[in-house]
Design a protein that fits this description.
The complex is a heterodimer of chains A (190) and B (280). With 190 residues, chain A is an all-alpha fold. In chain A, 76% of the residues lie in helices and 0% in strands. The longest helix of chain A is centred in the last third of the chain and has 29 residues. Chain B has 280 residues and is an alpha+beta fold. Chain B has 3 domains: 59 residues; 163 residues, no CATH class; 40 residues, no CATH class. Chain B is 30% helix and 21% strand. In chain B, the strands form 3 sheets. In chain B, strands 6-2-3-10-11-12 form a 6-stranded antiparallel β-sheet, with helices on one face. In chain B, strands 1-7-9-8-13 form a 5-stranded mixed β-sheet, with no helix packed on it. Classes of the chains: A mainly alpha (190), B alpha+beta (280). At the A-B interface, helix 1, helix 3, helix 4, helix 5 and helix 6 of A face helix 3, strand 4 and helix 4 of B.
Chain lengths: 190, 280
C-alpha cells in the first residue's frame, strides 16, 4: 500500500509542464528534475559513473533543456523524458571521452590552455553579485534565457518594455565597468 | 555606443550575412574593437555560466531519492526500513516445476528497501568503475542475468553507452500499481526476518549467513534495491534473494558465512521472475 502512495505522483501532464518551462517557470523544472532523477542518473551510474557525476550530468542536461525550451526553438517531437535522456547520453559520452583522453595523454599538455577561463567566469559571477538582484536577474534572463523585453518586464514587474530595455542597458553598463575594473586590477597584479 | 549595439548583435548571432561580413572587416582593421568584442564575449559567456550555475544550485536543493549511499561504511541494520510485506496468492511453481498446477500456494514477499536505494529494478550490470570497461547491453533485456563485460581497448574511439529505454520506467510504474490494486488476494502483513547489511567485512564480498533468526548480507548491497522473496507452501518456506536481476537461494539453516551463488535452474528463475513481475 505504501507503493501506491509512493508512485501516484508520477502522473503529471507533460504538455502542461513543458509549457510552464517554456514560460520560464523554474518550479516546473524542479518537478521534472525530481520526476526523472532516478531514470537519468541510472544511465550514468550503469555506465561507469559515480552518482555525483550522474547528478552533475543530469543537472547540466536539464539546464540545456531549459535554455532550449526557453528560446522557443524547441519543438518536442518525442516525449520530454526521451529528449532529456538523449541530452544526458551525449553529455556523458563526451565526459567519458574527455576522461579517456586525459588518461591517455598522461595529463601532459592541453591543461594550461583553458586554465583562466574558470577564473574569468568567477570574476564575472562576483561582479554580477555586486550588481544586486534586479540587475543580475535582468541580465541573466536576457542573455541566458533569451527572454524578450516584454517577458522581462512581466517577470520583473516593470511598467513596460521601455523600462526593461533601459534597465537592461544600464545594468550591462554597470557590469562592464565592474568587470573592466577587476580586469585591470588583475593585470596589475600579474 | 554604436559599437556596443553592433557587438551585441554579433554575439547573439542575429546579424545578417552582409552585416556580419562588414563587421568582421571592421574588426580586422580595428584592434580596439576586437579587444572589446573579446571582452564582451567573455562577459556574456560569464553571465550565461552564472545563470547555469544558479539553475544547477536550485536543482541541487530539490530533495531526491538517492540511488547509492555516499560511501557510508560499517554495519547497518536494515530491518527498520522494511517497507511492506505482501502476501500474494499465485500458482504453485517452486517445489515441482514439472508437475501440473496444483492448489494455490501462498507466497510471502518482503520488499526491503534501503532508504537510499529506491530503485524499482536493479540494473543488469557489473560493478566496474574504470571508464574503459563498459557493460554491453545484454541481449534479452531483463530476462538474462548473465552480463557481458566487454573491455574496450583504448584505441577504439567512442565509448559505448548502455542505453535503457527511458519510457519504460515511466509507463510501467503506474500500471504495475494498478495491477496490485486489482489483485483481491493480496494482503499486507509484517515480516519476521530482519536483514542486516555488513559491508565492513572485506573478506566476504557477496556472502550471507543466518544468525539468531536474522539474515546478514555481506557486501555492498546499497547499490541497488534488493528483495527477499519468501515462499510459503508444502510446509516449508524457502527464501530467495533478488538482487541486480539475479536470484539467489537463501538456506535458513546456514549459520556460517556462505557465498551467495546465483540460481542456475532456468525454469525456476523464470518462475521467480514471473512472480516478481506480477508482484511489482
Amino acid at each position: 500500500m505504501a507503493l501506491r502512495v509512493f508512485k501516484s505522483v508520477s502522473q503529471i501532464n507533460e504538455v502542461e509542464i513543458f509549457e510552464r518551462i517554456r514560460n520560464g517557470d523554474e518550479k516546473a523544472l524542479e518537478i521534472i528534475y525530481k520526476k526523472y532523477y532516478r531514470m537519468m542518473t541510472k544511465l550514468v551510474v550503469t555506465n561507469s559513473g559515480t552518482e555525483e557525476e550522474a547528478r552533475d550530468v543530469y543537472q547540466d542536461a536539464l539546464v540545456v533543456f531549459w535554455q532550449k525550451a526557453r528560446s522557443g526553438n524547441l519543438v518536442l517531437t518525442s516525449k520530454m523524458s526521451t529528449y532529456i535522456y538523449s541530452i544526458c547520453q551525449n553529455l556523458w559520452r563526451k565526459e567519458l571521452e574527455r576522461k579517456k583522453r586525459l588518461s591517455n595523454e598522461e595529463k601532459d599538455s592541453s591543461e594550461s590552455m583553458d586554465m583562466d577561463k574558470p577564473e574569468r567566469e568567477k570574476i564575472i559571477a562576483r561582479c554580477l553579485e555586486q550588481l544586486g538582484d534586479t540587475c543580475r536577474k535582468v541580465l541573466m534572463y536576457y542573455y541566458f534565457d533569451e527572454m524578450s523585453m516584454q517577458e522581462i518586464a512581466d517577470k520583473m514587474g516593470f511598467a513596460n518594455t521601455d523600462t526593461a530595455k533601459t534597465k537592461k542597458y544600464k545594468c550591462k553598463q554597470k557590469l562592464d565597468e565592474l568587470v573592466k575594473a577587476q580586469y585591470s586590477e588583475q593585470d596589475f597584479l600579474d | 555606443m554604436e559599437n556596443f549595439e553592433l557587438i551585441e548583435k554579433y554575439i547573439s548571432g542575429k546579424m545578417t550575412d552582409t552585416e556580419k561580413l562588414a563587421f568582421e572587416t571592421q574588426l580586422n582593421a580595428d584592434p580596439l574593437l576586437k579587444n572589446e568584442l573579446t571582452l564582451q564575449e567573455t562577459i556574456v559567456s560569464g553571465i550565461k555560466k552564472a545563470r547555469a550555475t544558479e539553475l544547477k544550485t536550485m536543482l541541487s536543493q530539490v530533495p531526491v531519492s538517492s540511488m547509492l549511499s555516499a560511501g557510508v561504511a560499517t554495519t547497518k541494520i536494515v530491518a527498520g526500513v522494511i517497507a511492506t510485506t505482501v502476501v500474494v496468492t499465485v500458482s504453485y511453481f517452486y517445489f515441482k516445476p514439472a508437475s501440473p498446477i496444483a492448489s494455490p500456494t501462498e507466497i510471502k514477499t518482503k520488499i526491503i528497501e534501503n532508504k537510499k536505494a529506491e530503485q524499482p529494478q536493479a540494473e543488469i550490470t557489473t560493478s566496474t568503475n574504470k571508464p574503459e570497461k563498459i557493460v554491453a547491453p545484454s541481449a534479452a533485456s531483463n530476462s538474462s542475468f548473465k552480463t557481458k563485460n566487454t573491455k574496450i581497448s583504448p584505441a577504439k574511439a567512442t565509448p559505448k553507452i548502455n542505453v535503457l529505454d527511458p519510457t519504460d520506467e515511466l509507463t510501467t510504474s503506474p500500471t504495475a500499481v494498478n495491477k496490485i490494486e486489482a489483485d483481491d488476494h493480496m494482503t499486507v502483513a509484517t515480516s519476521h526476518i530482519a536483514v542486516e547489511i555488513n559491508d565492513a567485512e572485506k573478506a566476504y564480498s557477496f556472502h550471507y549467513q543466518f544468525q539468531n533468526g536474522r539474515l546478514i548480507l555481506y557486501g555492498e548491497f546499497d547499490a541497488a534495491l534488493y528483495e527477499i522473496l519468501e515462499i510459503h507452501g508444502n510446509g516449508s518456506h524457502p527464501l530467495f534473494l533478488y538482487y541486480k536481476n539475479t536470484y539467489y537461494l537463501l538456506d535458513e539453516k546456514q549459520t556460517t558465512v556462505t557465498p551467495l551463488s546465483a540460481i542456475q535452474n532456468a525454469q525456476l528463475v523464470q518462475k521467480l521472475k514471473e512472480y516478481r513481475s506480477k508482484q511489482n
